[in-house]
């Protein structure tokens, strides 16, 4: 008997360690609610996690087995489960964050002590750390070279779904409720979880959006992206299954459409790049990836931080994004870049405050991608936005939401205002603003002034003052 320990691979299909374990079954699938992991969880992510586990449990039950659920430290829970069910080995897929690696090291020691074997697999990425490197064998610090190699490499086929005979005939317990895990029901609308829901999103995306992805993904009012990020992060769908479908789309595409599909593949590579960055630099979770000569003198301003969190900065595209986050536990990528630039360059507040808020609110929070992108926007990351490149929040709105559809969806106070008025909100007089939307605030800062100040802040950090 073998245990398959599900972690960030909440699916039975295209699951490398599970497929290997069932090669010589029977396999006992298990999940451990680990308090060390739960302390970094949040209501939207816990809700998604529980629903994904429920879907997985239903799959196993339909196949004559069950998902065993334990709560506690995996160094104790896994040997205990193995002893109880007479399992001689535990299988799992790698997780690449620093915390996960420390935990796995402790689990290996505990299993060694208990005389239980273990086998680990790379599954969450097409190309694991160490396989895409410079010619000298070093990890890449610049994405473009990494991306080119990633795109050129052949991708593995999906792993088979285990059949009922390979699964242990067991009965597990019911999953805990969100309250039992000490989280509240999220106020935000969280997407449906589980492999079936992920496949529906993939089907919808591959039916047409993928063929216009290169343009469609830039406009937050359009449904132009896959909306698969939470599925990728919880592993409710396998990377090989996604790539297989994308490959089919590529085969069906004409020349212009090929470019769009390739643009999507490049984003998938980008997600893997940040996982490599985190693997080699686990300290980036709390520290700047790139150090300047002097510490960056971030401002401290709780009122401005709060206005940013609440979507009350008086910059419409920023506020629409922050309110989308509140309402849907999600934000469009274009707007994520704008709000991250606004926090770090206009408000000149430390990226860590923004990252902490995103971690709490996003259903698709992923340490590697969230941190990598925040440090990119803050000009502290690897291959980051240069410090002197500061997004203009008014131009971002005008360019990417010209008809203000996205803005009006999330800011009801501006629903009656015409797009031109919205896109010149910072230039209106107080009286004009009062007349159009009395409940929507004036800008909390002057973008042009703050842009200069931010550049000076970075120049002092660079020792150029
Ligand atoms: C400040 C900031 C924070 C972010 N935090 C996260 C996060 O916590 N978790 C997360 O998964 N993504 C994060 N992203 C990246 C990106 O915004 C989301 O992956 C994307 O919006 C998810 O929607 P989608 O699946 O429809 O994207 P699609 O456009 O369909 O992208 C498909 C996949 O490509 C990858 N991808 C797309 N854009 C990026 C990007 N900019 N960087 C890295 N990978 C990318 C993701 O894996 C995504 O699922 C962040 C971006 C910014 C600017």
Explained architecture:
Helix 11 (255-280) packs across helix 16 and helix 15 (351-361) packs antiparallel against helix 16 (367-377). A 5-stranded parallel sheet has the order 3-2-1-4-5, with helices on both faces. It has 3 domains: 2-124, Rossmann fold; 195-280, Serine Threonine Protein Phosphatase 5, Tetratricopeptide repeat (Alpha Horseshoe); 302-461, DNA Cyclobutane Dipyrimidine Photolyase, subunit A, domain 3 (Orthogonal Bundle), CATH 1.10.579.10. The mean pLDDT is 97. With 465 residues, the chain is mainly alpha-helical. It has helices at 16-22, 35-38, 43-62, 74-85, 98-114, 143-152, 195-207, 213-216, 229-234, 239-252, 255-280, 302-310, 316-328, 333-346, 351-361, 367-377, 393-400, 405-410, 419-423, 430-436, 447-461; strands spanning 2-6, 27-33, 68-71, 89-93, 117-121. Helices cover 50% and strands 6% of the residues. Bound molecules: flavin-adenine dinucleotide. Flavin-adenine dinucleotide binds at residues 217, 225-229, 232-233, 267-268, 270-271, 274, 333, 336-337, 340, 358, 362, 364-366, 369-370, 373-374, 377.
């Amino acid at each position: 008997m073998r245990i398959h320990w599900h972690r960030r691979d909440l699916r039975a299909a295209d699951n490398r360690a599970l497929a290997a374990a069932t090669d010589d079954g029977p396999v006992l699938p298990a999940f451990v609610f680990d308090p060390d992991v739960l302390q970094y969880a949040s209501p939207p992510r816990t809700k998604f996690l529980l629903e994904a586990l429920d879907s997985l449990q239903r799959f196993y039950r339909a196949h004559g087995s069950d998902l065993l659920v334990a709560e506690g430290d995996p160094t104790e829970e896994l040997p205990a489960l193995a002893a109880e069910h007479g399992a001689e080995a535990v299988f799992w897929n790698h997780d690449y964050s620093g915390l996960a690696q420390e935990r796995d090291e402790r689990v290996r020691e505990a299993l060694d002590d208990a005389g239980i074997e273990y086998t680990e697999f790379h599954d969450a990425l097409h190309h694991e750390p160490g396989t895409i490197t410079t010619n000298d064998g070093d990890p890449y610090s610049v994405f473009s070279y990494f991306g080119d190699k990633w795109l050129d490499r052949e991708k593995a086929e999906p792993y088979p779904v285990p059949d009922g005979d390979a699964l242990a005939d067991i009965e597990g317990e019911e999953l805990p409720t969100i309250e039992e895990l000490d989280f509240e029901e999220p106020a935000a609308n969280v997407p449906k979880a589980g492999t079936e829901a992920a496949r529906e999103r993939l089907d919808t995306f591959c039916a047409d959006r993928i063929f216009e992805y290169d343009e469609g993904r830039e406009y937050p009012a359009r449904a132009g992206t896959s909306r698969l990020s939470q599925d990728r992060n919880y592993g409710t769908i396998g990377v090989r299954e996604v790539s297989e479908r994308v490959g089919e789309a590529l085969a069906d595409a004409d020349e212009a459409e090929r470019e769009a599909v390739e643009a999507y593949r490049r984003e998938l590579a980008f997600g893997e790049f940040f996982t490599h960055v985190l693997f080699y630099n686990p300290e980036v979770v709390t520290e700047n990836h790139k150090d300047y000569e002097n510490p960056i003198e971030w401002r401290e301003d709780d009122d401005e931080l709060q206005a940013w969190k609440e979507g009350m900065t008086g910059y419409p595209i920023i506020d629409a994004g922050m309110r989308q986050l509140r309402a849907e536990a999600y934000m469009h990528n274009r707007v994520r870049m704008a709000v991250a630039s606004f926090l770090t360059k206009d408000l000149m507040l430390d990226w860590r405050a923004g990252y902490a808020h995103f971690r709490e609110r996003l259903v698709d929070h992923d340490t590697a991608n969230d941190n990598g992108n925040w440090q990119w926007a803050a000009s502290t990351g690897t291959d980051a936005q240069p410090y002197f490149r500061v997004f203009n929040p008014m131009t971002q709105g005008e360019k990417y939401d010209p008809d203000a559809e996205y803005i009006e969806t999330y800011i009801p106070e501006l629903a009656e205002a015409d797009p031109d008025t919205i896109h010149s909100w910072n230039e209106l007089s107080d009286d004009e603003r009062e007349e159009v939307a009395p409940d929507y605030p004036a800008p909390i800062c002057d973008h042009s002034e703050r842009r200069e100040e931010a550049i000076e802040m970075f120049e002092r950090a660079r020792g150029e003052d």
